[in-house]
Amino acid sequence: MVNTMTLATPENTGLNVKTSVNPLIGDVCGDDVTLHPGDTSFPVIHTENLNLWFGEAHILQNICMAIRKNRVTALIGPSGCGKSTLLRCFNRMNDLIDHTKITGEVTYDRENIYAPGTDVVLLRKKIGMVFQKPNPFPKSIYENVAYGPRVHGIRERCELDRIVEKSLRDAALWEEVRDRLSQSAMGLSGGQQQRLCIARTLAVGPEVILMDEPCSALDPIATAKIENLIEGLKQRYTVIIVTHNMQQAARVSDDTGFMYLGKLIEFGATNQIFEHPGEELTENYITGRFG
Ligand SMILES: Nc1ncnc2c1ncn2[C@@H]1O[C@H](COP(=O)(O)OP(=O)(O)OP(=O)(O)O)[C@@H](O)[C@H]1O
Ligand SMILES: [Mg+2]
Fold it and tell me: pTM surpassing 0.85?
């Protein structure tokens, strides 16, 4: 198995650098990120001219964006435009895919996460992921949540109990499962399983939660529960969510990035993107003219 992961500067690659100025956050392709006056948040994740290839296919092209701390950022765009691939760049999940090449920079708390020597296990503890389809382990509800803390060395039963309860409470599932913690997670409904997966992610103490279409397999009631949960999560976490549902992006997110054919066409405050998009492509997509 050959997994080619290289990191280069834009100068080395000779690629054109897209310069974009985000009115909300400032010049995200410049030397540094300048915050919007009065905005107390700061970019927790920052990409600079990020390019990604799977083999010969140039999947992500010159992506420049700044993800604000304790905000919800939505990534929208037609199928195949690179949303999931971009999301996976943030915790190096693309490393697991053969023949991946990355150039440019992704920083988390100002550290380049693709620098040699990066502790990828620690990175994925800090930047957790929830997938489209709920994927609980075939174990008890308790063991699903306790699994991550155990892997990270927590052994004391009372500490595990505390983490399991807190994570389930934070995932708005505790009241529904408190009396059946030892029962199989496979017996939960789809919406409950997805909240269990969120609890499992929270249990290892992340700072950022990546969600790839977390509601696409859920009914409207379960979806509403997850959306309410996301609203609460941003008090303590930074959330990046991929969604095909425009209403959902408008409801839950503070910032939105619109992607098309591997490029980040527009990125800014959600109300601005939805009410006054700066690009015709964005407008065509959000008004349903294609996609
Ligand atoms: N493991 C892989 N190997 C090769 N190509 C891949 C791989 N995963 C994704 N791709 C390609 O990369 C491009 C972007 O895929 P990605 O899954 O990021 O799109 P997406 O915007 O998330 O789409 P969707 O909305 O359908 O989930 C697509 O052309 C896809 O075929
Ligand atoms: Mg996807």
Answer: yes
